[in-house]
TrEMBL record:
Keywords: Cell inner membrane, Cell membrane, Membrane, Transmembrane, Transmembrane helix, Transport
InterPro entries: AA_ABC_transptr_permease_3TM, ABC_transp_permease_HisMQ, MetI-like, MetI-like_sf
Organism of provenance: Metarhizobium album
Compartment annotation: Cell inner membrane; Cell membrane
Name by which UniProt lists this protein: ABC transporter permease
GO MF terms held by the record: transmembrane transporter activity
Cellular component aspect of the GO annotation: ATP-binding cassette (ABC) transporter complex
UniProt similarity note: Belongs to the binding-protein-dependent transport system permease family. HisMQ subfamily.
Any Pfam family hit: BPD_transp_1
Main location class: membrane
Boundaries of every ABC transmembrane type-1 domain copy: 12-216
């Protein structure tokens, strides 16, 4: 575990950076999909509401590992088919980082959609009705009344989804991405010291979760300043 020429310290730190990067990318993709899904769930069009309901039901019901496999092998098959049209032969694998981030994002989007939807439903209806009575257009009503308050209520739930995304990032090792879990497996196999490497990986995951959890906690406290809470 040293940082010398024969140590694995730098490799584990680099893999930790990959884990954080893929988790952040997947989380941001999920946030965008969650916002779109939440907006669709409040739409006056039944087709959009049904599509949002189907999306969150399917993605929360299918195992995350299966989603990653479907994204990776589905996109790889598509790339291979396109390559064959230009004379390429054999199987062409999709980029593991991009595929994994998209897969995690699609899954987390289903959970974030429910978080955002619940945050909107928690808003006092009187304020929204007052904005409509004042003549605010829908976009202005959303920007000035709905978004600031919904974001305040959504922070705790979004923080929980981030913790899930962080743990799900370990599953991307199955498609070849050398993130923290995969690097721990490589180190354990090379040195035959599995306990040390997996314990170190566990400590690094806990460290990331602790730091990010504190960040969400501070964001929640800042967002709730001036708001009286029931005791």
């Amino acid at each position: 575990m040293s940082f010398g020429p024969d140590g694995w310290g730098y490799s584990l730190l680099a893999a930790t950076g990959v884990t954080v990067a893929v988790a952040v990318c997947g989380f941001l993709v999920g946030a965008m999909l969650g916002c779109l899904g939440a907006a669709a769930s409040f739409s006056r069009f039944r087709a959009l509401r049904s599509a949002a309901d189907i999306y969150t039901t399917l993605l929360r019901g299918i195992p995350d590992l299966l989603v990653i496999y479907l994204f990776y092998f589905g996109s790889s098959s598509l790339i291979s088919s396109v390559g064959a049209l230009f004379g390429a032969e054999g199987f062409v694998g999709a980029p593991a980082f991009l595929t994994g981030a998209l897969a995690i994002g699609v899954v987390s989007g289903a959970y974030q959609m429910q978080v955002f939807r619940g945050a909107v439903l928690a808003l006092p209806k009187g304020e929204i009705e007052a904005g409509r009575a004042y003549g605010m257009p829908p976009l202005l009503l959303f920007r000035r009344i709905v978004l600031p308050q919904a974001a305040r209520f959504a922070i705790p739930g979004v923080g929980n989804v981030w913790q899930l995304v962080l743990k799900e990032s370990a599953l991307i090792s199955v498609i070849g991405l050398v993130e923290l879990m995969r690097q721990a497996q490589i180190g354990a196999g090379s040195t035959r010291q599995p306990f040390s490497f997996y314990l170190t990986a566990g400590v690094l995951y806990l460290l990331i979760a602790f730091v990010s959890g504190r960040g969400f906690k501070l964001a929640e406290q800042r967002a709730m300043r001036g708001i009286r809470r029931a005791v």
